[in-house]
Amino acid sequence: MRLHALNCATLRPASGAIRLGRRGAVERTSAVCTCLVAELDRGLVLVDTGLGLLDVAVPLRRLGPGFLAAMHPRLDPNETAARQVERLGFSRQDVQDVVLTHLDPDHAGGLSDFPRARVHLFAAEHRAAVGQPELAPLGRYRPMQWAHRPRFELYQPDGPRWYGLDVVHQLRGLPPDLKLVSLPGHSRGHGGVALRSGCGWLLLTGDATLRPGALSWDFPPRPRWLNRSSPLVGSSARTRHRTVEQLAALGQEHAREIGLFSSHDPGDLERCRGWLGAT
Ligand SMILES: [Zn+2]
């Protein structure tokens, strides 16, 4: 399958926004929201959606003041997956499936731009975000982003292990070259998405490694309360650390077979594009 790696939102987090550059210059860090587009015979698969056109148009309503204050998104409609899919020469209707790492607003915001697409994700993530609307005021998830009632396809990690990781046996209607990998910790049902292209696998690890990153980034810093088990997050620091260790081991043992890329590191996005160009 042919793959494209897109940045579907630029974030400039308040925390850690200023850092000392290599030559001692003060610079402002920014984060990307990496999404993937896979071209299949039957249509397109979008992996994560970044921020959507409605998020950009009415950000306060859609994203909430907390997200805006913490992340300072660029809010550029040209960065949305909808616009970028069109620039690739497709229509939005060509996106028939969306596979999500999780439902945080910077990953799920574009869902409403592809209202007919089936949305594949772990049942645990759906339960945490969609099944607990009473937690919405606490701010992590933004139910408005799925108010159009997309057709969710929900999964358990029930497949045979893939490189030592728990995965979904088979995503409905999608080829076996596309896998949903269980990487819990950042959120209760957080996953990674693996795609096979050319001579190797690519694994988008989402936000699994955001904190003390054995893989690379710990960006943006998470509030300390997110480290504890809570109904909002639903996973413990131990779970997250276990996931990070699994990914670090995967990266060490299978670096030639699998390219690992996190969602927010601009360097990872560049490496991912290089990987796709090389395979
Ligand atoms: Zn994120």
Task: Provide an overview of this structure.
This protein has a single domain (2-16, 29-278), classed as Metallo-beta-lactamase, Chain A, CATH 3.60.15. The chain contains seven helices and twelve strands. It has helices at 53-57, 59-71, 81-87, 105-108, 123-129, 237-253, 266-278, and strands at 2-11, 18-20, 26-28, 31-40, 43-47, 95-99, 118-122, 151-155, 178-182, 191-197, 200-204, 258-261. It has a six-stranded mixed sheet with strand order 1-4-5-6-7-8. Strands 9-10-11-12 form a four-stranded mixed sheet, with helices on both faces. The protein binds zinc ion. The site of zinc ion has 6 residues, from helix 4.
Write the layout of secondary structure elements.
Layout: E1 2-11, E2 18-20, E3 26-28, E4 31-40, E5 43-47, H1 53-57, H2 59-71, H3 81-87, E6 95-99, H4 105-108, E7 118-122, H5 123-129, E8 151-155, E9 178-182, E10 191-197, E11 200-204, H6 237-253, E12 258-261, H7 266-278
Parallel strand pairs: 5-6, 6-7, 7-8, 11-12
Antiparallel strand pairs: 1-4, 2-3, 4-5, 9-10, 10-11
The structure holds zinc ion.
Zinc ion is lined by residues 104, 106-107, 207, 263-264.
Percent range of helical residues? 10-25%
Mean pLDDT value: 86
Main sheet: which strands, in order across? 1-4-5-6-7-8
Strand content: 15-25%
Ends distance: 11 Å
Task: Give helix and strand order, one letter per element, not per position.
Answer: EEEEEHHHEHEHEEEEHEH
User: What's the story with the biggest beta sheet?
Assistant: 6 strands, mixed
Rg calc: 17 Å
Structural class: alpha/beta
Architecture, CATH level 2?
4-Layer Sandwich
- Low-pLDDT runs of 5+ residues are 212-233
Please give the domain count: 1
**Count of distinct strands:** 12
Bound molecules: zinc ion
